[in-house]
């Protein structure tokens, strides 16, 4: 009796892929949040023990992180969290400005009262997190604000694309949020963008967004002076 061949991967392969994805997602979040500092050594054995798995899914996760530019693998030396490449940030800012100009201008044209209420709720949460000096949750709402604008515009795919484009910007920005007053400044910039969208003022919305995003490069130059080991 002949057995029909399976069309898909076996359960062991699926489990390994799922495990590798989980490891990738956790390390990705820890690197972007700077919980894992630039230059830190990542040991396959220790990560495997932490997750209770073999080294194979760990190696797969690290390879994906290397492709994303978040780790560097040196065969004779080990694997390290990559330093933030200053040379990559200006281009990423240009791309982000271009795409977010598109989304905010479109949002200003089509936003409904419900859309504005959605932005208001996000800004209110940002104010609350800023008052508690809670940078981690503030950052989550920062992301939610920009994602909401893309959704309001009807271009959610733009935000999906931007998440990969702005990875190194995000790592640098994590260093700015603990700076006194920075979270309040960001919140007020978001409020200005919200007001322009609510007024259906396309030009003002665009200008407010460009002002908001334009602060990244000056911030990074200042950060390099304070954290020289974090940047390459």
Automatic annotation (TrEMBL):
Domain of life: Bacteria
Residue ranges of domain HTH gntR-type in the record: 17-84
GO MF terms held by the record: DNA binding; DNA-binding transcription factor activity
Keyword ATP-binding belongs to the record: no
InterPro entries, A to Z: GntR_C, TF_FadR/GntR_C, Tscrpt_reg_HTH_GntR, WH-like_DNA-bd_sf, WH_DNA-bd_sf
CDD domains, per the entry: WHTH_GntR
Entry keyword set: DNA-binding, Plasmid, Transcription, Transcription regulation
Protein name: Transcriptional regulator, GntR Family
Species lineage: Bacteria, Pseudomonadati, Pseudomonadota, Alphaproteobacteria, Hyphomicrobiales
